[in-house]
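Help! Submission page says 'invalid entity' but I think these are all valid:
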Amino acid sequence: MRRDVSDFSNRLDIDKLSELLDIPEHRITGALKRKTLQYVRLNPELFRFDKPVSTIEGGTSVFIDTYDVVRGFPKISRTLMLDPALRQHFSSCQKVAVEEKMNGYNTRIALVGDAVFALTRGGFVCPYTTEKARLLIPMGFFSDHPDLVLCGEMVGPDSPYVPKSFYGVESLEFFAFDVREKLTGKPMPVMKRRELLDGYGIKSVRFFGEFDVDKAHLGIPRIIRELGSSMHEGVVIKDPDMVVAPVKYTSSESNCSDLEYAFEFYNDYGRDFFFGRVCREAFQAVEWNEDDESLEKRCLQLGKSILLPMIQTIKKRKAGERIAEDVRIRVQSLDTVTAFEEYLGILGVDAVFGEPEKVGDEYLVRIRKMYKSTSDKTASILNGGMWS
Amino acid sequence: MRRDVSDFSNRLDIDKLSELLDIPEHRITGALKRKTLQYVRLNPELFRFDKPVSTIEGGTSVFIDTYDVVRGFPKISRTLMLDPALRQHFSSCQKVAVEEKMNGYNTRIALVGDAVFALTRGGFVCPYTTEKARLLIPMGFFSDHPDLVLCGEMVGPDSPYVPKSFYGVESLEFFAFDVREKLTGKPMPVMKRRELLDGYGIKSVRFFGEFDVDKAHLGIPRIIRELGSSMHEGVVIKDPDMVVAPVKYTSSESNCSDLEYAFEFYNDYGRDFFFGRVCREAFQAVEWNEDDESLEKRCLQLGKSILLPMIQTIKKRKAGERIAEDVRIRVQSLDTVTAFEEYLGILGVDAVFGEPEKVGDEYLVRIRKMYKSTSDKTASILNGGMWS
């Protein structure tokens, strides 16, 4: 449910956008009518593509004051078996570059007019992420490259979306995994990008090296096991020239950790979420040719990841608690808190903000995200309601 | 996909049906237009309600030669926690009757014109089940009670839908759990029904006795554990007078066995199928207040039920096999085989029939049901395709 995303179509210069994006006007008017292209009443005002339209990715944002366009981040395909998927997908490449896939939230940082803004995957400007981006990214990068977008993962315990503390990050850090042209989305080759960012002191995700395409499936499992053992998510495998689209592959530990999270809020998460992760486990077990002992371990881990969080949720509800997730943000300006609260409201997130606590020269704000569907469904069954 | 269920609406006397079912004509014409009320070109010809319309259950069949109407079998609600669900649901009753819920397929047997036919849950006449019904049910029952429908479970190893061999049935047996009025669906009180059928030598599902409503949740877990330990499915809890609707409750073993089956054909089964069963496990663990050891056992069992069959399927496919389920039927007449093959075709089931083998005075026919979606998806991933 997205409130306040309503009919402001007349504020969009359709002619101009059609030319900028190189798509016919009727595709834009059609998208506006279907609300696939939506007005977002926040500051700065923008229109966002909720889904792909023609050649334009979902999550693409159009800022209507300046007509800056930031293209959406493309969906990355997932392989469930490295062999022969890598050889086949990268058949036109000699080598593949392997980078870490971190578990935070996808962020694009771009210059809009003369200020820096941070966009979430969906193409909304997040006021909190924007404050952090302005702190973390030296303005020199955008002065030198106003037409580039920094794409990366925002990671750390002060993440209001995916709080993780195992990355050794104190608050929230940005790790780049792509640099793209703002208007076209065209990516930069891997090493060129890493060197460019290094020059500005901008962090990149971990680089595991380049592998011969024919041998990558032999080297990557070792990386995945190592990453998994410290709860890290997985890797993205890339054409070093970024001509062929990248492919992702994740650790069993990360799949299970996702399941644990989702089953705590079992009635608020899509059922496909569960299914996809189970399938990853089965294919990995086959590719790794696991023996009975390893299989039993994997089955137990899967079962625990599903049942234990859900059982905890039922017990909590039985004890009268509402089902919620506690997250926190750390800001320099209290205005950011107000803007972030308004922003979550527009996204339809039911969140209760605590009083800001002064920590050094910053404010820590604890936020309780309420999971109404899980709370209600659990209470209904505990009170004698039928499943269906 | 249901082929041959096309537009024969003009063969239906809408006036007459409206009067018989006591619903307005426009509901019938609307249902015909939306194909919720479908013509089935099999012998005997009928119209079936694919979904509920007004007060008429999905699965209700209207035979157009005789205008016999057989009402659909009502959906039975499921409880995930016996307490306080039973006290609440049966608050107007003093006692509840507990009968076994067997794991076969729901069948209604009725007199249509002067012959007996067997209907599946969806309201199709199944030619194979019809042959069995005519063998198993003494005609005397229907001569005496032409307006009653026998509702029950067809169970045994010669089931083409749910073959199970642990019931001690040699081929296929019918176990009644309801007797209802053909036109209205009105059910008969539990003990009256069991005695009536007993008089005709018609088997009923197992009866576990009557329990005080306030105490049923204490007695039923023992029954469920006993049933589960021999892979039996669970119980249906009923108002002895059949005024309040029944409620079902199943064993963990049966949930897991369902999951095992579904994950063998993982891409052909709905994702809700998995989700519901997982939730049953979590609520049962809470209601039974399980200790760490029992919980660990439950988690391992759940994980195994999900992963092991799927891993087997992937390995089979890797070895070049197509994914299929082998079932069998046993018939007295070869005409039944032909009719059953045509019937599966109309349901859109891809099945390969073996040559009939003479066994005593009957024929055994092996049927291979092909699971195309699972075969294709698995092959695609093994051949290097992406998950999405």
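Support: the input was valid. A stray whitespace character was the problem, and the output above is from the cleaned input. Chain A touches chain B through 53 residues (CB under 8 Å).
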